[in-house]
Amino acid sequence: MMMRHGLAAAGVLAVATVTLTSCAGGTDTTTASTTTAAPTTTTTAAPATPTVSEDQAQSLCTDLEAQLSNWRVQGPTVGRGGLNILVQTWAARYGLNAAVIQNRGIVDTAATDACSDVRSQVVDILEIPDLASGLVGL
């Protein structure tokens, strides 16, 4: 008979444990598991380098040439501000703002290819080593 009472007590204890576990939200707080995910790597292709078309470069040259006499009179300090405005306006006109921000050298490349004489004059008047160096905040 003792065995029956022992089994009955064990059964009541098991039911109580299940009931308590169910009341606690159905989770067993005595066990924990840890899962570590393997690291993943993704490779993306580098974005294509934007290019300036011949027409866009020629437009830049025309804009630069139109400012030469003003920059001679204004001097290099004021002229550099004018260069920034001119390049920002030109880049916005052709949707090249992001390209110029990422690589100011494309302005030099475009001007060198399309009008190296005008570029040289701008560099001399504004007292900068190249057009990219004269672009502040881009």
Descriptive overview:
The chain has 138 residues and is mainly α. It has a domain at 54-134. The chain is 67% helix and 0% strand. It has helices spanning 2-23, 54-74, 76-93, 97-102, 105-126, 131-134. It is globular. The model is unreliable at 7-23 (pLDDT under 50). Keywords: Signal. Residues 28-51 have a biased composition (Low complexity). This is Lipoprotein.
Helical proportion?
55-70%
**Strand fraction:** under 5%
- What's the overall average pLDDT, rounded? 78
Please tally the helical runs, counting DSSP H or I stretches of 4 or more residues. Answer: 6
Low-confidence runs of at least 5 consecutive residues: 7-23
Counting DSSP E segments of at least 2 residues, the number of strands comes to 0
Largest sheet: none
Through-space gap between termini = 92 Å
Organism: Rhodococcoides corynebacterioides
Signal peptide: 1-24
Biased composition (Low complexity): 28-51
Keywords: Signal
